[in-house]
């Protein structure tokens, strides 16, 4: 069995074997080398780290694959119609971690918008590509982000100039279907300059025991609005790790939504800094888990200036022997008066073997604030179930209705655009349909 140390050394050796063949700018090569060195020095997370205390680290070590080679053998292209957004969109498809132009359809972009793969961005817009890499890759506590910086081959990049309104959503479809255990390190960047408006929808699907490690850097400029939706529906054998680093300027507005239904083990982290006054951050989402799945959603929101508003609603539905984890942290710094920060994590347990660990936290260093946090863990409301059955609804249908109402509530709160809402809900309904078949 591979140990943490042997897994780290295997990654180091793979990096040493790959680096001489890469043709890329010196600045990027230097950052990659520094990130790998930092990864080797820090090693993989342990349970001594509070952020990883509830995680089954054995799965991470066992699933820590090596990156795929730059080119794969020709093969039939996957059918993607069932996973696409309804209606028109600026579509980018990343197949096994690399841009697939034959599957993508970026279309005509308005003036002031740059959208493409990170690999192209490195050549065509090195200034934008550099923004995808953060100093914490070589200095911070995120081991997997360091590993990502060392190995990332592709991702997407979106730049909106000041005042640009992108009417159609940007759709990013991540498809992981390579055979055997392997790693896809995706690095992406979204820069929404002052007054711009855009929606980005990411969908992760695939088959097999792949290992996805995605890092996204986001800057929302003064008065800009970004709506960022993620659906994670990878295979039941996959491992999925994702980190979003977001910086919000004054009066910026960021709306995030995440739905987790796939992967054997997954983790979605958000590290957001509200660096300007009167910013607004919204994060809604749900994890729907069955079998032996484990999923963690871990947002950290740092309020640095006055008047920031944050609202988080993350709901969980857990059955069989699955394990859901919510680690929510709100920080209000000194001087950040007028902050209004709220987080809530309700969980619905559908079987005796299901588990939830929930830890909402507030750290407040200012006086004039409104902050609250809460979490609930419970099973189906027996009174509501009895009421439905007493009205002639069979018990299985009544149970299904209550579960759907609980999970769908977060969609109603999020108030996504109609096409995006329909896209995300079909994964919810597919999960509920499978649960109904098993009941």
Descriptive keywords:
439 residues; ten-stranded mixed sheet; 10 helices
Count of helix runs: 10
* Shape verdict: globular
How many domains is the backbone divided into?
A: 2
**How many β-strands, per DSSP?**
19
What does this structure look like?
It is a single chain. The chain is an alpha/beta fold and 439 residues long. It has two domains: 4-276, no CATH class; 381-439, no CATH class. Helix content is 26%, strand content 37%. The chain is built from ten helices and 19 strands. It has a ten-stranded mixed beta sheet with strand order 2-1-5-7-9-11-13-15-17-19, with helices on one face. Helix 2 packs antiparallel against helix 7 (143-151) and helix 9 (395-414) packs antiparallel against helix 10. The mean pLDDT is 91.
Q: Brief overview, please?
A:
This protein has 439 residues and is of the alpha/beta class. Helix content is 26%, strand content 37%. Helix 8 packs across helix 9 (395-414) and helix 9 (395-414) runs antiparallel to helix 10 (418-438).
Ordered list of secondary-structure elements with their pairings:
Layout: H1 4-18, H2 26-42, H3 57-62, E1 90-95, E2 98-99, E3 113-117, H4 118-124, H5 126-130, H6 136-139, H7 143-151, E4 156-160, E5 170-176, E6 182-192, E7 197-206, E8 210-220, E9 225-233, E10 239-248, E11 253-260, E12 265-274, E13 280-289, E14 294-303, E15 309-318, E16 323-332, E17 340-349, E18 355-364, E19 370-378, H8 382-390, H9 395-414, H10 418-438
Parallel strand pairs: 1-5, 4-6, 5-7, 6-8, 7-9, 8-10, 9-11, 10-12, 11-13, 12-14, 13-15, 14-16, 15-17, 16-18, 17-19
Antiparallel strand pairs: 1-2, 3-4
Helix pairs in contact: 1-2, 2-7, 8-9, 9-10
